């Protein structure tokens, strides 16, 4: 035990050096201080760069402000005079009656807003959007994006916006169209929209025209013709006086003049009756009797024809004085019964069959005339080289009878169409 104590006593530890502890502590603290220094240096560098950028922008703004204050036109490629000239070149004429191009950009229940490159937008009221009566502008095809020519008709004092019209332009075009149709002497369709004690009011090309009762070749009353269409011709077209006079008599006379015996015309089925179908031919409504529909028996007309059908018929007879026309589809059948089995074939062969029919009629008439001359030479008739039987001295004009003087409606025969056919 004593020897062990002696051994420990003999051991000596070197003294702890204060400098060494200080060096070790310094060794551990150096990296942290270095990192903090680098972060601080970077932050200062960024702050200095931002400050310099701000100073630069501030200087630019100050220089720009100074130039605008002292020399506003420096560096501008045009002068004040050039600017005013440009304004004059694009000066907008807003006088009433001026036509302008515009683009619809919005619609509402009362009309449409139009951009006409003026100081403010313009407005197209629904009542000025069309020559026809409409409730919304969309009914006239006016939608956003549509570009059209308008005419200025007024100004809204509340917001200084301009009021536009398409209706006025359409009226001008309608009058021009009516003058053209009158010059061409064509037959047009007019819809009856009203009447008074003097005649009917009919709409043609969007214009309201007057048809005197003396110019109506029908015994129908104004109430019966209301909302119906019938053929018309122009008598007087005067835009300055806003006067449009029409005649149904002239139109009917021209239509009837084209209805030669044996001719093929196109008609529309108006209605069906147990005894036949009423067919409209250019405003002349007449009966196609059930016996003249087909060679085969037709037990039910509705199985062959329907209202609204378009068909071809051949004229068998025409009484111009009484305005009655006999029609037939039976004579156009290539084979008996084709109108029941294949009406399309009948209409395709109509002209060919009618030509054959006319040739047979002409031959029969020539033979009848020859027999008459053979047995009655004292009759005073002569047979031409064409097989036409005529008086030796005819009082009729060479060009035929004038059919334009058709009697007025109150002088027409009152016999019904059914009875006549």
TrEMBL record:
Biased composition (Polar residues): 384-393
Compartment(s) where it occurs, according to its Swiss-Prot or TrEMBL record: Plastid, Chloroplast
Keywords carried by this UniProt record: Chloroplast, Plastid, Repeat, Ribonucleoprotein, Ribosomal protein, RNA-binding, Transit peptide
Alphabetical list of InterPro entries matching this protein: NA-bd_OB-fold (IPR012340), Ribos_protein_bS1-like (IPR050437), Ribosomal_protein_S1-like (IPR035104), S1_domain (IPR003029)
Domain S1 motif positions: 97-167, 185-249, 262-330
Annotated Gene Ontology cellular component terms: chloroplast stroma; ribonucleoprotein complex; ribosome
GO terms of molecular function: mRNA binding; structural constituent of ribosome
Protein's UniProt keywords contain Repeat: yes
Single Gene Ontology BP annotation: translation
Region spans: Disordered: 384-421
UniProt similarity note: Belongs to the bacterial ribosomal protein bS1 family.
Protein name from the UniProt record: Small ribosomal subunit protein bS1c
Taxonomic source organism: Populus euphratica
